[in-house]
Every structure is written in structure tokens, then in C-alpha cells.
Amino acid sequence: MKIVITGAKGQLGTQLINIIKAGKSEIGSIDERYKDSEIVGIDIEDLDISNLDDVVDFINKEKPDIIINPAAYTNVDACESNEDLAYKVNSLGARNLAIAAENLGIKLVHVSTDYVFEGNGVKPYKEYDMPGPVGVYGKTKYLGESFIREFCSKHFIVRTAWLYGYYGNNFVKTIMKAAKERQELQVVDDQRGNPTNAEDLAHHILKIALTQEYGVYHCTGEGECSWYDFASKIVELSNIECIVSPCDSEQYKRAAKRPAYSSLDNMMLRCTVGNEMREWEEALKEFIQKVKL
């Protein structure tokens, strides 16, 4: 089996490659069919996914069985001032991979985001709830989803949120570093979502990719919290002496509006391949025990 993974140097791409090579994740073993599989990890310097001809030529040459696409322009604030770049990567990149995959009947797993929702809900969004993104990042990611539905019949769209992993920068590492350097931190408590360990997400991506259970998935840590709750738990589990205080979003003027409530419900996982996503506190505890800053 051959697998192409985009964004291979990012925190999710790296996690996917390491789990495939190890044959297991923190959740458990992965399918034996991944053993001895050929992994083609690519990043921006290897392939510009926004160029259709290059993508088609590359996929025609490699002829993988599965394409996994974590690649994205994820700087939410920068997307507001770099709309063309966000569109090229998040929308056209997804479209191009979908076209190339369909040409050869290849399965495509595309990673999306909770930001496709408006974020004004009061209960976790299910896969059948209608998206309504408010910022450029969410809009370009949602258009990418739409292109994949239109152009690739064998697709899995996997929405996740508040992702952190062992590789690259993320909220958990930022809070741990800041807490060691300062006596007090202020973190917003009026935005709620699901912290998600990249280990758990990667495990489930690899699980669904071998099936024919095509469609849209929500794949986040179980349970929800505010960013303040998340930061407080990070500091507590890290045994760092630091006071974490709540504040509201108005104190932090950002270019892009953040969803106030964007928790996701992993309904598709429960109803198909099984939901093994850990409670967010459990997954965070293991992460902090193992992470190296």
C-alpha cells in the first residue's frame, strides 16, 4: 500500500507518519494492512498543491492508494489579509487533490475544521448541521470541503478542532512555556470547543481511510471546555506555579472573529468505525507527561 501525506512536516502529518511506522498510537494498534506500507510525505517545497497541473502530474506518477491531506494555511488572522493565499491553499489545494484522486479512483482523506461553523450554537455541532463560516479561514476551508464533495467520489472529510501534538507549535506548548516565564496568565473564557490530541486524530484518520465509510466526520477530543479551562488544566498537569485568570475576547483585538461556541459531536465515528477519541483531559495528561519542550 502506498500513502501520500501532504503537510508532512506539520504536527498532524508528522504524527501520521510516526504512527504508521510504529504500527500503533497511544490509543492502540493500527490495522496490519499499514505494515510495510510506502509513505510519500510531501510539503510545500516538494509540491505546491495550489497548482493543478503539478498535483495531477505528481499523483499520476506516484499512484498512491490513499491521499491524506492535512496541508492548510491555518494562520487564522493572517488569512484575513492574505485572502488569495488562503483561497489557493485551503480551497484550490483541496480541489486539485480531489480531481487528481478521482482520475485514478484514489481515496482522499481531507482534514477540515470547526471554523466552518458560525460558532453561535449551544450544543455540539453534528455532521448534518449546516456550516456558516464567518472568517476567511473558515470560508476557504468550507469551500475546500465543497470542492472535494463535488470532484472526488471516494472522500472522507474529517473536521477537527483545537489541535495540539508533539511536533511543531501549539496552544499547549505555548501555555507551558509562558507559565514557566510568568507568574500570571490571562486566557479568554468566552470561547468553547474541544481540545484534540493529534495522536487521537491520526489514529482515527488511519482507521477510516481503510474503509468505504465515505462522508463527513467530526473527530475531536471528548468533552468541551473554554480556552481558560484548557490553559488552567495545562498548568495544573504541568505542576507549574502560575496563576491563570479568565478574561473575555474583547480584551484581545484580533483580525479574525473566533467562534464563541464550536464544539463538535463525533456522531459519524460512533455510527460507523467506532469512536475511540479520549476524554480531552486524559489525552492532555499523557501528552504533558511525554512532551519535550
List the helices and strands and how they pair.
Blueprint: E1 2-5, H1 11-22, E2 38-41, H2 52-62, E3 66-69, H3 76-81, H4 83-104, E4 107-113, H5 136-151, E5 155-160, E6 163-164, H6 171-181, E7 184-188, E8 192-193, E9 196-197, H7 198-209, E10 215-218, E11 225-226, H8 227-238, E12 243-247, H9 267-271, H10 280-290
Parallel strand pairs: 1-2, 1-3, 3-4, 4-5, 5-10, 6-9, 7-12
Antiparallel strand pairs: 8-11
Helix pairs in contact: 1-7, 2-4, 4-5, 6-8, 8-10
Question: How would you describe what is shown here?
Answer:
The chain is α/β, with parallel strands linked by helices and 293 residues long. The chain has helices spanning 11-22, 52-62, 76-81, 83-104, 136-151, 171-181, 198-209, 227-238, 267-271, 280-290; strands at residues 2-5, 38-41, 66-69, 107-113, 155-160, 163-164, 184-188, 192-193, 196-197, 215-218, 225-226, 243-247. The protein is built from ten helices and twelve strands. The chain has a six-stranded parallel β-sheet, with helices on both faces. β1 (2-5), α1 and β2 (38-41) form a beta-alpha-beta unit. α1 crosses α7, α2 (52-62) packs parallel to α4 (83-104) and α4 (83-104) runs parallel beside α5 (136-151). It is globular. The mean pLDDT is 97.
Task: For this entry, give a set of tags.
alpha/beta; Rossmann fold; 6-stranded parallel β-sheet; two-stranded parallel sheet; 10 helices
CATH class: Alpha Beta
Instruction: Specify the CATH homologous superfamily.
Output: NAD(P)-binding Rossmann-like Domain
Assembly annotation: single chain
Per CATH, the architecture is: 3-Layer(aba) Sandwich
Might you state the CATH topology name? Rossmann fold
User: What characteristic shape results from the CA principal axes?
Assistant: globular
State the share of residues found in helices, binned by percent.
40-55%
Number of strands: 12
Major sheet summary line: 6 strands, parallel
Residue runs with pLDDT of under 50 for 5 or more positions: none
Number of helices: 10
Rg from Cα: 18 Å
Distance between the termini: 34 Å
Domain RmlD-like substrate binding: 1-291
Keywords: NADP, Oxidoreductase
EC number: 1.1.1.133
Pfam families: RmlD_sub_bind
